[in-house]
Amino acid sequence: MTRRVEQAAEQLKALGHPVRLSILRSVVQGPEAGTPAGELQTRLAIPGSTLSHHLATLSVAGLVAVARDGTTLRYRAEFGVLRALTEYLWQDCCSGGVAPETKPAPCCGGD
Amino acid sequence: MTRRVEQAAEQLKALGHPVRLSILRSVVQGPEAGTPAGELQTRLAIPGSTLSHHLATLSVAGLVAVARDGTTLRYRAEFGVLRALTEYLWQDCCSGGVAPETKPAPCCGGD
DNA sequence: GGCTTAATTCTAAATTTTTCGAAATAGAGC
DNA sequence: GCTCTATTTCGAAAAATTTAGAATTAAGCC
């Protein structure tokens, strides 16, 4: 079990919760400067302590970054990490093992 | 909390485990006809009952499909589901909210 | 039917995750 | 320093996940 698989699994696990996935999508679609934790809290309608725990999970996984702006903390998506993660998921889907394929694998064209 | 977010979270959670992620990558990179459970077992070096549980998790999430071939069961990736999942993760990353942006968001260009 | 191989389901114990109220920390303004 | 707002950390209970041995099901073959 390589280090990369462990890391990717940790990141996917962090995304594998409705609240945390909503948070990530909010920051992905939100402003580049980041979204205040308080705004996420009202948007998701959950207790602050619960939100904070989920934000820490995403942060530890490296999927979001945080920056202080006065008394508010702004969370933003780590696009590079997210891109590397999705690429890892699809890696080598077209090689199809040892021999070169005559027709493209289903993951490359339609499906 | 929409249905889609729940579904995507379930799929990501299914991927959020080193063994299950390894399984998915094996079947993504494996032959179109699917990979036998037994081959996955020797490759991952874990008890059959444990493997079977993980395969069921991936299957329930819709990420893999199974087909019987004699006494062996072949698992293959559901590429369409996997593609929809990764697209969901990135959805609207370039729109950046209500107003059209003057410059492309970091997720669209470099980063 | 009986035997063998492939894989799953059953069962249960250990561990981890999730949740949130209460308390603590951090910065801004008076 | 005091106070207010924003957010996190502490602590602890409930729920879900992970693991794997033992028993079971399924298919092929003599």
TrEMBL record, chains A, B:
- Keyword Iron-sulfur assigned to the entry: answer is no
Which residue ranges does the record assign to the HTH arsR-type domain? 1-97
Q: Enumerate the InterPro entries for this protein.
A: ArsR-like_HTH, HTH_ArsR_DNA-bd_dom, Metal_resp_trans_reg, WH-like_DNA-bd_sf, WH_DNA-bd_sf
- What CDD domains does the database record attribute to this sequence? HTH_ARSR
Q: Would the keyword Transcription be found if you checked this record's keyword annotation?
A: yes
GO-annotated molecular function: DNA binding; DNA-binding transcription factor activity
Q: What is this protein called?
A: Helix-turn-helix transcriptional regulator
